[in-house]
UniProtKB/TrEMBL annotation:
Membrane topology (UniProt): Multi-pass membrane protein
Protein name listed in UniProt: L-methionine/branched-chain amino acid transporter
Pfam families referenced in this protein's UniProt entry, alphabetically: AA_permease_2
InterPro entries to which the protein is assigned, alphabetical: AA/rel_permease1 (IPR002293), APC_superfamily (IPR050367)
Location in the cell: Cell membrane
Claim: Nucleus is one of the keywords in the record: no
Amino acid sequence: MSGLKQELGLAQGVGLLSTSLLGTGVFAVPALAAQLAQYDSLWAWPVLILLVFPIAIGFAALGRHFPSAGGAAHFVGMAFGPHMARVTGWLFLSVIPVGLPAALHIAAGFWQAAFGWSSLNLLLVQLGTLFAIWFLGTRSAGSSANIQTLIAFLVVGLMVAIWWKGDITFSQIPLPKLQDISPLSLFDALAVMFWCFVGLEAFAHLATEFRHPERDFPRALLIGMLVAGAVYWGCTVAVLKFHAWGEGREAAASLPGIVVQLFGQHALWVACIIGYLACFASVNIYTQSFARLVWSQAQLKPKSPLAKLSAQRVPVAALNAVVGSCVLFTLLIYWLNLPLGALIVYANGIFILIYLLCMLAGWRLLKGRSRGMALLGSLLCCVLLAMVGWKSLYALLIFALLWGVLPKPRATLQAE
């Protein structure tokens, strides 16, 4: 038994995953997709869900049959041995230096849009956000789930309000005919839109904290993915209707701009707060997942402080290490004024590589249709790595470095 508190239900799981997938993307990606594919992007979302579906089924089956706080590292370790588990775990943790600080930077940007704050004030917002995430993490996964479920309702409510005030109806949506779709523009949009579904691997770390993981974890994963996809599609419809996209426009400002257009300037702060909360939810689930991964890896040395749980059965020591590291890198990035955009693209390659390793593990561990889905997911991940192009070499080099540097476990005598 993992020792972590099992308290998550189906609704909480859906709230956790949907907010993780929406995150920063819900305010930016619909405008980017519209810029790349115009009205063809309305077909791109259902196509993307169909493409990601095999990967989601693979994660759902792995989480159902092998629930563990180790998440991706645990699945890979069961299939390919303890050394691969450690490599995968550290590969996931290698996102911390750029991924979390970048998301914090984007989250703080909503405060700048609403109140025009200076860079120093935005740094304080980032540090305050980390403190709030740390406080939530010391409580339990249920506390985070309840808050993120509320955030999911706020995001959905914002989209519904835009549709209602903007008088958007399904009969008015100019959905292109299939024969009129440009495959090239659709492919370009899909390359960007895939990042909206980065988050499945983080959700896997919470599988063991469901009250009924074998039943509720796969349902929460699939329902949460469909909810997020529906919200993205609805936001894309609004962006296209109000022409909130194009050259010279900031993608993240598309939905706040629509809100101002429909409800007036005084409503800007409402959209910005919801945007901040969506970012907060994404950073929160990743931080909690990193903490559980660190705790899981520390079980190899049970006397390590990182292997301990608090009285509430929460990995507080591991959480302290993760949040402390994030504070350090946030301050470092602020001081050096690093270009985060390019670094995030490289980090995305790491996520695809982790997906690939998990799908290969699913191909070895699962049976029946789930095994076929894992194999299909593996092929899809290879295609996605090819789409990233030469920038995927960053992830492959990190993987090779970890493989060579991390000590291999000593060979043990086989039982007679």
